[in-house]
Amino acid sequence: xxxxxxxxxxxxxxxxxxxxxxxxxxxxxxxxxxxxxxxxxxxxxxxxxxxxxxxxxxxxxxxxxxxxxxxxxxxxxxxxxxxxxxxxxxxxxxxxxxxxxxxxxxxxxxxxxxxxxxxxxxxxxxxxxxxxxxxxxxxxxxxxxxxxxxxxxxxxxxxxxxxxxxxxxxxxxxxxxxxxxxxxxxxxxxxxxxxxxxxxxxxxxxxxxxxxxxxxxxxxxxxxxxxxxxxxxxxxxxxxxxxxxxxxxxxxxxxxxxxxxxxxxxxxxxxxxxxxxxxxxxxxxxxxxxxxxxxxxxxxxxxxxxxxxxxxxxxxxxxxxxxxxxxxxxxxxxxxxxxxxxxxxxxxxxxxxxxxxxxxxxxxxxxxxxxxxxxxxxxxxxxxxxxxxxxxxxxxxxxxxxxxxxxxxxxxxxxxxxxxxxxxxxxxxxxxxxxxxxxxxxxxxxxxxxxxxxxxxxxxxxxxx
Length: 465
Ligand SMILES: Cc1cc2nc3c(=O)[nH]c(=O)nc-3n(C[C@H](O)[C@H](O)[C@H](O)COP(=O)(O)OP(=O)(O)OC[C@H]3O[C@@H](n4cnc5c(N)ncnc54)[C@H](O)[C@@H]3O)c2cc1C
Prior knowledge:
This protein is α+β, with helices and mostly antiparallel strands and 465 residues long. The protein folds into three domains: 6-44 and 224-298 and 407-464, FAD/NAD(P)-binding domain (3-Layer(bba) Sandwich); 48-66 and 91-95 and 299-404, Alpha-Beta Complex (Polyamine Oxidase, Chain A, domain 2), CATH 3.90.660; 110-212, Orthogonal Bundle (protoporphyrinogen ix oxidase, domain 3), CATH 1.10.3110.10. Helix content is 34%, strand content 21%. It contains 15 helices and 22 strands. The chain has helices at residues 14-27, 69-76, 129-138, 153-161, 163-178, 187-190, 192-199, 205-212, 229-240, 277-284, 289-296, 338-341, 370-385, 410-422, 439-458, and strands at 6-10, 32-36, 48-51, 54-57, 63-64, 89-90, 97-101, 104-107, 112-113, 116-117, 222-225, 243-245, 252-256, 259-263, 266-268, 270-273, 300-310, 321-324, 334-336, 351-357, 393-404, 427-429. The strands form six sheets. Strands 8-7-18-19-20-17-21 form a seven-stranded mixed beta sheet, sandwiched between helices. The chain has a five-stranded parallel beta sheet with strand order 12-2-1-16-22. The longest helix has 20 residues, at 439-458. The chain is globular. Bound molecules: flavin-adenine dinucleotide. The site of flavin-adenine dinucleotide has 36 residues, from helix 1, strand 17, strand 21 and helix 15.
């Protein structure tokens, strides 16, 4: 039934490659699957580089192992199972991470939802006595929240608990995930379980957090692939058996017959758009004007990663890394002590780490020359950990428009995009701009888009294929 079917996937990031792989699985070997990628490599925000002879991720480095998508995908690709059991799945060491606040290192806040506490008990010295008293009193202050409300995280948390909690606990964690801050991230899209607890009538923010906190479960929270994400990308490409056209930017999309005319590849039966928000807006264009406008209104944040290899005897602390509170004097917003965090990384010859710079609204640092970014990373290493010396190797990776900002009202934009695209047969959309920036959410979105398209081109439900 898939004989002669020609489907294009626009965007060769992990979303697009996951879509292509799912298309191949469902349609079999005869379908023609094209992946158009504007850059000269696949992977998008995922990139594995050589650093002092080791393979090191300078974009995404991990995934939430408790979501089902990555274990399922790794199993399909023959990469599941721990190293040594013929698999490539690795887990972090479990060494604690730190937060730098008030020019000192603190343990990560405990029992919080992205740094938002249910009580002051797990915050240690990240907040002072006034804030502790305010958090305790918050339970008795009436909360104004109507079901369906949305606001930015900073407004909610600062109003209820005080700005110290936002700066020292919430900003560092949100900065890590979205490259934004609590002021640019919306409650509903970034913390859906918290929004649900508020909608359900929680009497205070503390109570809502308590209700929304996930049950603690045994087993590691995060996973990664030994050898870096590149291993996953290559396995996806091999299994998708798609024709991948690098340095090929999709530049126009027009309905044509039963399918689409996609410049520059011509007539196709269906198209999956797996590109960032601005490119999605351009390609949707006149085909879905409100959806294109919604995509165009999603802001993006740029950042830079400086990966360093240090001599094996550099006295790095026994921690996985350090996040930085708002207002600190360091230039970096976070440091991952990669070979402390991932026992599979590095070796007897070197220790590897990553410094991250730039967050939404503070992006000038991203375009500093490489040498200056490396110098800032070395300076911050001394400030954060007292470690001095010359790196053995360094790689600078800039991520312009790297992460979409899920601001207040993001869900409405997603609904506008999805309903606009749903009205266009043979077109599907997926990617980090929609329902989660993490790799598992991107994989889920890519696969779901493929299933929609298969249902259209074969006229049957993908789940039964
Ligand atoms: C620094 C950083 C660290 C991160 N760390 C993690 C992490 O540890 N764990 C995690 O789960 N997530 C992490 N993320 C998030 C995650 O990496 C991304 O959200 C995800 O990789 C996005 O995948 P995507 O395929 O949706 O989009 P992209 O990776 O942006 O891919 C889209 C592709 O489309 C191409 N394209 C654009 N326009 C066109 C066009 N017109 N024609 C053809 N091609 C086009 C682009 O070149 C790009 O390759 C991180 C992100 C960044 C930036």
